[in-house]
Write the structure tokens for this entry.
Amino acid sequence: MPAKKAPAKRLGLDVYKRKRDFTKTPEPKAKRAKDRGPLRFVVQKHRATALHYDFRLEAGGTLRSWAVPKGPSLDPKQKRLAMEVEDHPLEYANFEGVIPEGEYGGGTVMIWDEGVWMPMELDVDPVKALKKGELRLVLDGKKLKGSWTLVNTGDRRWLLMKRKDEYASTEDITETQPRSVRTNRLLAEIARDEGGDVAKAATGDPVRRRGSAPSTRRSRPLKR
Ligand code: MN
């Protein structure tokens, strides 16, 4: 019998801790919490080396985390690659700001969506379902709602897919709803407010369409 391929080693909070210098970054320190009450989820839009969306689900006292390069899609036909990354502490769900350049994940972080979640089947233990490699879940966020599937396709590669329900849509929600659900800011505005690289952050914001761009001209004409 061929040897069964060993599953990829789980990346725990120890990995999160090892990657960061907490004397330099304002991100939360590594801390495990007990499961209690509704489980939280957060989607953080993160302009680091590349733009991506960090999808995080509370389970087992930490935020289980996936980096989704294209972000979530409301269209059930779109399977979005979600790379499993290290657990993050629950407190990370409150982090919006700037990770200093040169530090791990350096760049601007936005709380793009947040809310609570639960497994579709109430008798399912989230940690066990994730270990098995398939979790059917219901999200109740401000932007993302309804039923979704997260399925492992090998190593740390997962697919995040919307299931068909009344919240399914072909609307490109990352384009139509680009702002923070906490502060209504775009990435460039977060960078501007918190001492980040505004030009770099702006590349993660939607391109302004001709004709709809708010004027940046001063009311007083500039002297030549
Ligand atoms: Mn990230």
